[in-house]
Design a protein that fits this description.
Strand content of chain C: under 5%
Strand content of chain A: under 5%
CATH topology of the largest domain in chain A: MetI-like fold
Membrane topology (chain C): Multi-pass membrane protein
Distance between the termini of chain C: 50 Å
Subunit structure (chain C): The complex is composed of two ATP-binding proteins (CysA), two transmembrane proteins (CysT and CysW) and a solute-binding protein (CysP).
Chains: A mainly alpha (282), B alpha+beta (355), C mainly alpha (297)
Order of helices and strands of chain A: HHHHHHHHHHHHHH
InterPro entries (chain C): CysW_permease, MetI-like, MetI-like_sf, Sulph_transpt2
Shape of chain C: globular
CATH superfamily of chain C: MetI-like
CATH architecture of the largest domain in chain A: Orthogonal Bundle
Largest interface: A-C, 98 and 100 residues
Subcellular location (chain C): Cell inner membrane
Structural class of chain A: mainly alpha
Largest sheet of chain A: none
CATH topology of chain C: MetI-like fold
Helix content of chain C: over 70%
Oligomer: heterotrimer
Function (chain C): Part of the ABC transporter complex CysAWTP (TC 3.A.1.6.1) involved in sulfate/thiosulfate import. Probably responsible for the translocation of the substrate across the membrane.
Radius of gyration of chain C: 27 Å
Shape of chain A: globular
Structural class of chain C: mainly alpha
CATH class of the largest domain in chain A: Mainly Alpha
Order of helices and strands of chain C: HHHHHHHHHHHHHH
Distance between the termini of chain A: 35 Å
CATH superfamily of the largest domain in chain A: MetI-like
Number of helices of chain A: 14
Largest sheet of chain C: none
């Protein structure tokens, strides 16, 4: 088996190709691809007209719009602060740096439901933060603003963790070169460093957005879940399922899945582009 | 522009990288800073550029004290070892960067910047590549883009850190000649760092030999090779062999025996000579006697390893003639005498001819 | 030679302005940025974490302990451990196999395979649960078949395990693949040339080379497996004492306004997260050299 020349792969002296690839594909297929295919087949079975009716239902559209809008805001906040955090972690040495570095991953490690109830208790009108916002007329919990807070929390590490390694690899010589050419620190920052980080920043932004759009656990506690106002798309899927409206759930899910695929595609394009042009990228 | 360094020192965490160096560079000169790694040559270059800050001393650009100026204000053209090109900018934008970041008052217009960039690319023979990105260029091309970028700001001095270090041997030779031509045409005061003595000797008007943060010698290629000022320079530039000797009554004793070489002074000293600068003598003649311990054929010569006085090993080159090949087997005794040599002792530096 | 050196050497060594480096910001700017990061992370990350423990202990220690040893809570803890004990090893084996295939061999379609492995990260957890409902649910493709044979997947433990495997699918693989690609096959080829068998090579050369990355992957995979909410919520049916995992139990308690109890169970999950982060940080600190060596391979 190993001895035969194959055209679709380079020969290698290392053993185990057939076994490892076979297992990988079988497991991937059974656990991920077949179930996802079920979703695609189910939504295809609805028929174009029915699918369109379900997908463009006003409540569905409102939910998708809300999921996207709040995810965009959260990803933008994280792009700005994530870049700043990455900069501080990579470039400065200060007391507590290792601690901060560890804390960044908290949203990856903390279950979303826990984050959800904790954020809700903080931002509720009588909560630690909410009691100060209430008199100002700011409503965070049980409103779209609360969704943004929760999504900011869960997608916080993405930008930091994609920008960090690229920033660490940026040669100090680049900044020195800019300085010898007369560029001020601000000019160096915005004309040299930020453009060099842009592919990583966009990748991190896209990853954060993808995560935030699909987020469920942390949002449902804080959102208030009022249809047309603070009901996110994943919650709508759950509601449709609980109503045994499988077709409705499938339609919303299919739209979200398509969006996820597009974003995955964009992320891959971004990385390929940055690798080709700049010779780096994750 | 003249560049004058006055007693400059720089230490990193108490490790003295540059120690009390003074040097005057004339306007238009091409100077090489040559030394082994860790000798402080790159630190010296970065101090001139303002990328590092002096602990002591000062640096003059012309009549102006540059020490207090920031790197941005010094107007130096610095070419980094790995070029430090901005990857996300194309070649023309890289070259024009220094002009684009000028304050509005002194910034040339967009078309003027582009014209200057193209002109410089023409100068470094990269016309037509202005739209390429650095990743799409060869090492030698990147080198020249970096040079054009440094020249674009009309620098007071051009500083190059190991300019050929990252290139392969063939490109390196071509670029070396080309840089020399370019220097003659543009006339910039230029300082470059290298650890390659051949490069330094071939390219520079004067070579500054550095060791352990100090200047060992400053001079032309001839000065440095023919009249090395210190044992370090003798050993570092070109090939050299050395032996401990004793000076007594105007003669030089090697392993306690007269060597037929004369030198003034008294006491212990060290004799340096080039392996190629020796004459093989007949047995019994007065010279340095030793036993051949190894023999290797080089292209047109034969290099002998010779044990002198039992324990000291030196290398000498002899013509590779048929009649010598049998005689110079391992174990045979030879007598040789350096045609030229130098003695370094406590007080001894002047060169002497063999008697 | 003396003429080459500059005229009169300066005796006085005038203190030169120490100036700041060309590649950093003014100290005030640095302090401000570090301060801003501390405030942002303190507010967005630390405050919620602190809130969990404060709320959990609001009713006192005894109420806290009572909420944890209550039978439904214990059942949820047991189920969470069982699910993780199945999902994590399964994904670990998969991750190692996938990394071996992808990193050590060149074949067509490799980049597609890598993209597909990452796919579950891009899918909403709710959808991860939904797809299994569509497959195995009462109205699903295999629903009637399973029903006829008395096999329960949805609203039962197997569904929870499957959904958990789906959402934690990429963790180990994505830790290992980039690392093993960087390392190349040199070590394995050397071992084979020295006469080691393929399996010995894998065991004695490949695994030790990636052990830290593997451990990271497993840690993250485990944290997510125990904490997954959305996907599990869709397939579990929320049957108390039977199909409730810890996060689901938290939700039920919270929706019943048993806030202190909800936060008590949540605090266990938060401790798990803290433990995961602490272990990761400790390993990074303790084995910084070994990890760098893995990377620099």
């Amino acid at each position: 088996m190993r001895g035969r020349a194959r055209t679709w792969r380079k020969r290698s002296v290392l053993p185990g190709f057939g076994l490892s690839l076979g297992f990988t594909i079988a497991y991937l297929g059974l656990v991920v691809l077949v179930p996802l295919a079920a979703l695609v087949i189910k939504s295809a079975g609805l028929g174009a007209a029915e699918f369109w009716r379900l997908a463009t239902d006003p409540r569905t559209l409102a939910a998708l719009r809300l999921s996207f809008g709040t995810a965009l805001v959260a990803a933008t906040i994280n792009a700005v602060f994530g870049a700043l955090i990455a900069w501080v972690l990579v470039r400065y040495r200060f007391f507590g740096r290792r601690f901060l570095d560890a804390v960044i991953d908290l949203p990856f490690a903390l279950p979303t439901a826990v984050a959800g109830i904790a954020l809700t208790s903080l931002y509720a009108p009588n909560g630690w933060v909410g009691q100060f916002l209430q008199p100002l007329g700011l409503k965070v919990a049980y409103a779209p603003a609360g969704i943004v807070v929760a999504l900011t929390f869960v997608s916080l590490p993405f930008v930091v963790r994609t920008v960090e390694p690229v920033l660490a690899e940026i040669d100090r010589e680049l900044e020195e070169a800019a300085a010898t050419l007369g560029a001020s620190r601000a000019q160096t920052m915005f004309k040299v460093i930020v453009p060099a980080l842009l592919p990583a920043l966009l990748t991190g932004f896209a990853l954060a957005l993808a995560r935030a759009v699909g987020e469920y656990g942390s949002v449902i506690f804080i959102a208030g879940n009022i249809p047309y106002v603070s009901e996110i798309a994943p919650l709508l899927i759950v509601i449709r399922l609980e109503e045994f409206d499988y077709a409705g759930a499938t339609a919303v899910a299919a739209v979200m899945l398509a969006i996820a695929f597009v974003m995955l595609f964009v992320i891959n394009l971004l990385q390929a582009w940055s690798r080709r042009r700049f010779g780096y990228g994750s | 522009m003249d560049i004058v360094l006055q007693n400059i020192s720089k230490a990193f965490d108490d490790y003295p990288a540059v120690h009390d160096i003074s040097l005057a560079i004339r306007s238009g000169e091409l100077i090489a800073l040559l030394g082994p790694s860790g000798s402080g040559k790159t630190t010296l270059l970065r101090l001139i550029a303002g990328l590092e800050f002096l602990d002591r001393g000062r640096i003059l650009f012309g009549d102006e004290d540059a020490s207090a100026k920031s790197v941005q204000e010094r107007n130096v053209g610095f070419v980094f070892q790995h070029y430090a090109l901005f990857k996300q900018m194309n070649v023309a934008d890289n070259v024009g960067f220094g002009l684009r970041v000028r304050p509005r008052a002194s910034r040339p217009g967009r078309t003027e910047i582009r014209r200057r960039a193209l002109e410089l690319l023409d100068l470094v023979q990269l016309s037509g590549l202005e739209k390429r990105f650095p990743m799409q260029l060869s090492g030698g091309q990147r080198q020249r883009v970096a040079l054009a970028r440094a020249l674009a700001i009309e620098p007071a001095v051009l500083l190059l850190d190991e300019p050929f270090g990252a290139l392969d041997a063939k490109v390196r030779k071509e670029l070396r000649r080309w840089l020399r031509d370019l220097h003659e045409r543009t006339g910039h005061t230029t300082v470059f760092v290298t650890h390659d003595q051949e490069e330094a000797l071939e390219l520079a008007d004067r070579v500054v030999v550095m060791n352990a943060g100090r200047v060992e010698q400053v001079g032309t290629a001839d000065d440095i090779y023919d009249a090395p000022a210190s044992p370090f320079v003798h050993g570092f530039i070109g090939e050299s062999s050395s032996l401990p000797v004793t000076l007594s009554g105007g003669t030089i004793l090697v392993a306690g025996r007269p060597s037929g070489l004369v030198g003034a002074g008294a006491g212990a000293a060290r004799l340096f000579f080039r392996p190629g600068h020796v004459d093989l003598l007949r047995p019994g003649e007065r010279g340095i006697a030793g036993v051949v311990t190894g023999s290797r054929r080089l292209t047109d010569r034969r290099r002998l390893e010779i044990a002198v006085g039992g324990s000291h090993s030196v290398e000498i080159d002899v013509p590779s003639l048929p009649e010598t090949s049998g005689v110079l087997e391992t174990g045979s005794e030879v007598v040789f005498r350096p045609r030229e040599f130098r003695l370094y002792g406590e007080s001894e530096t002047a060169p002497r001819r063999a008697a | 030679m003396a003429a080459e050196l500059s005229g009169a050497p300066l005796r006085i060594s005038r203190p030169v302005r120490r100036g700041r480096s060309a590649t950093t910001e003014a100290p005030a700017v640095r302090v401000a940025l570090v301060g801003l990061v501390f405030v942002f992370l303190g507010f967005f990350l630390m405050l919620p974490l602190v809130a969990v423990f404060v709320e959990a202990l609001r009713g006192g220690i005894s109420a806290y302990l009572a909420a944890i040893v209550e039978p439904d809570a214990l059942a949820a803890i047991r189920l969470t451990l069982i699910v993780a004990a199945i999902a994590v090893p399964a994904n670990m084996v998969f991750g190692v196999a996938a990394a071996w295939a992808v990193a050590k061999f060149e074949f067509k379609g490799k980049s597609l395979l890598v993209t597909l492995i990452d796919l579950p990260f891009s899918v909403s957890p709710v959808i991860s649960g939904l797809v299994y409902v569509l497959l195995f649910g009462a109205q699903g493709f295999f629903g009637p078949f399973l029903d006829a044979h008395g096999v329960e997947i949805i609203f039962a433990v197997p569904g929870i395990v499957l959904a958990t495997i789906f959402v934690t699918f990429p963790f180990v693989a994505r830790e290992l693949i980039p690392l093993m690609q960087e390392q190349g096959s040199g070590d394995e080829e050397a071992a084979l040339s020295l006469g080691a068998s393929g399996f010995t090579t894998f065991l004695l050369v490949t695994l030790p080379n990636v052990k830290w990355a593997l451990l990271y992957g497993v840690l993250l995979c485990n944290a997510r497996a125990m904490g997954e909410f959305g996907a599990v919520s869709v397939v579990s049916g929320h049957i108390r004492g039977l199909t409730n995992t810890m996060p689901l139990h938290v939700e039920i308690l919270y929706n019943e306004y048993s806030f202190a109890a909800a936060f008590a169970v949540a605090s266990l999950l938060a401790l798990l997260a803290l433990f995961t982060l602490a272990l990761k940080t400790f390993l990074e600190w303790r084995f910084a050299g070994a990890i760098a060596a893995e990377r620099a391979h």
